[in-house]
Design a protein that fits this description.
Blueprint: H1 5-37, H2 41-60, H3 66-82
Helix pairs in contact: 1-2, 2-3
Length: 84
């Protein structure tokens, strides 16, 4: 266990950040999964920009690597374009 006051504060703040990052990542993943389950092209096209925006925010906050985000976005666009 940490002995210094600053180290204790770092533990508290890192725990808070971890929870926030986990929440953002999980909510984005569930939104993307919901988008992938969508069967109507119009609805999928409508929610695609929001999904891309959420993924970009994960990159901006260093929660997801930019290459992984590009891969995710590419797969989403392919999925939406393949719908009828």
């Amino acid at each position: 266990m940490a002995n210094h006051k600053s180290a204790l504060k770092r533990i508290r703040s890192s725990e808070t950040k971890k929870l926030r990052n986990k929440y953002q990542h999980k909510s984005t993943k569930s939104f993307v999964k919901k988008l992938e389950m969508e069967e109507k092209k119009a609805a999928a096209k409508k929610s695609l920009p929001k999904a891309v925006s959420m993924i970009d925010k994960l990159v901006k906050n260093n929660i997801v690597h930019k290459n992984k985000a590009a891969h995710m976005k590419s797969n989403l666009v392919k999925k939406v374009n393949s719908l009828k």
